[in-house]
Amino acid sequence: MLDAQRSDFLAAGAPSAAVRRDRIDRLILLLTENADRFSAALQADFGNRPHVVNLLSEAVGILPDIKATRRHLEAWMRPQRIRSGLLMGMPTVVEKKPLGVVGVIGPWNFPVSLVVQPAASAFAAGNRVMIKFSEVTPRTAELFAATAAEYFAPTELTVITGGADTGAAFSALPFDHLFFTGSPGVGAKVAAAAAQNLVPVTLELGGKNPAVIAADADIPAMAQRVMAARVANGGQICLCPDYVFVPRAEVNSFVTAALAHGRLAASQDGEAGLVSIVDAKNFDRVTSLIEDARAHGATIHDSGTPFDRARRRIPPTVVLGVTDDMRISNEEVFGPVLSVLPYDNIDDVCDYIAARPSPLAAYWYGRTDSDFEKFCGRTQSGGVAVNDFALHCAVMEAPFGGVGHSGWGAYHGKTGFDTFTHHRTVTRSKLPLSFAKLITPPYAPALAWGLRAYVNWERRAAARRLSR
Questions:
Q1: Of 156, 241, 242, 324, which has the fewest beta carbons less than 10 angstroms from its beta carbon?
Q2: By the 8 A CB rule, do 315 and 309 touch?
Q3: Among residues 58, 156, 204, 332, which one is catalytic?
Q4: Which neighbouring-strand residues pair with 385?
């Protein structure tokens, strides 16, 4: 499949803007004409995933970015002329070249949208696309693969299904770029496999995202917002807050309000209810984190509804007394469980976060005062949102991605186009002399003199700046 896509790409050359728009339009039709079918498949895969969640997360949430990409792609495609090159007698243009064949490995938590969105960016950049769909949502995977074949020739878009062995083989293919969304552990394996072929990789990962309640915040209101963010999609979002710092004197107030919102959310059922944990393996993993914390002395507060393994329902839960020897303090939860940590000053908060792997998101609830500026300045994260959940991801014109342990690279908007584009510099010479001849024997005596003079001039300039 890879060979067929690459051969067709090389034979056809870089596609026109019209061809790219046509492919994006077919991608939009694939998504919108089958939105209800995808929703039904997701409901079956998860056990309970309300239709409104499926429509919002898998279609409506990404369509504005895809449409904006379609609208702007012709402008983004235009070569960039470098003015300084012309002044130096070396007219220079940066061409926007497609890479070739892009591989996309999708996650199970948003299996449709998180393959469609990078595929749209790759199409806008002029590439062909191969998608490896997550095996954790098998009904959705089979439906998407069969449906995609109705809209695209296999030399444009190919969808592969299968388990871990298939994923490993897919990661080892010599793509021109590989885009992965998932956990840091699997991301490390994908990057290692891609490195064998020197394939550039974009990794959209996760991490333990912190939230901070400022001392001046409306505690009950912000507690409800944090808990709502924690239970979104059953807590199965790489952007969910994993733990929250609360002023020590306000911990009880925060927990009371958070659990009240958790009970409200948990009391709903069916189409209005919480999203189920995706499978038994993940249900057992999340509950084992809770039990490990309890065994090590943590206090557990749930929302009053029972843990239900048959339906894979975990009530919104708050954990107090978390210490570093507990698994929950080090592992990404990916479930509706929130750790609450008291704090006395913002420096302690910054020290705690900075000493740990960089998360995908960090949250601040309260005024953006000097404490907020210190928080931003002393901590590292893929993005920061203030007073609400995932805002930095919702602004599609801005880059979205992680840093360090939470990912490499970014996409959305023009950043997505640039991710899947080779910026090739083309320079012509209008100089009366040859640069190649200048730097090969025999060397002109004036060259050494000129080079030494330039180095001395820069040395004196730097010394003057430092002496001021």
A1: 324
A2: no
A3: 204
A4: 363
| Contact partners, residue 95, CB within 8 Å, separation at least 6 | 79, 423, 424, 425, 426
Distance linking the first and last C-alpha atoms of the chain: 63
Strand order in the sheet with 421-427: 80-82, 92-98, 421-427
- Rounded to 5°, the CA angle 373-376-377 comes to 80
Strand partners, 364: 212, 386
For 466, the token pair is 């430092």
Give the distance, in angstroms, between the CA of residue 359 and the centroid of all CA atoms in the same chain. Answer: 11
pLDDT (0 to 100) of residue 181: 97
Alpha-carbon torsion, ordered 53, 59, 60, 65, to 10 deg: 140
d(C-alpha 405, C-alpha 187), whole Å = 10
Written as six digits, the tokens of 52 are 């409104």
Handedness of CA 273, 228, 413, 416 (dihedral sign): negative
Is the distance from CB of 144 to CB of 159 less than 8 angstroms? yes
CB of 358 within 8 A of CB of 406? yes
Q: Choose the catalytic residue: 58, 156, 238, 350.
A: 238
Query: What pTM does this model have?
Result: 0.94
Query: In whole angstroms, what is the distance from residue 282 CA to residue 15 CA?
Result: 43
- Residue 331 annotated in active site: no
In whole angstroms, what separates CA 47 from the centre of its chain? 26
Active site residue 240: no
Q: pLDDT per residue over 151-179, tens digit each?
A: 999 999 999 999 999 999 999 999 999 99
User: What secondary structure letter does DSSP report for 125?
Assistant: T
Please give the Cα distance from 386 to 263 (Å, whole number). 25
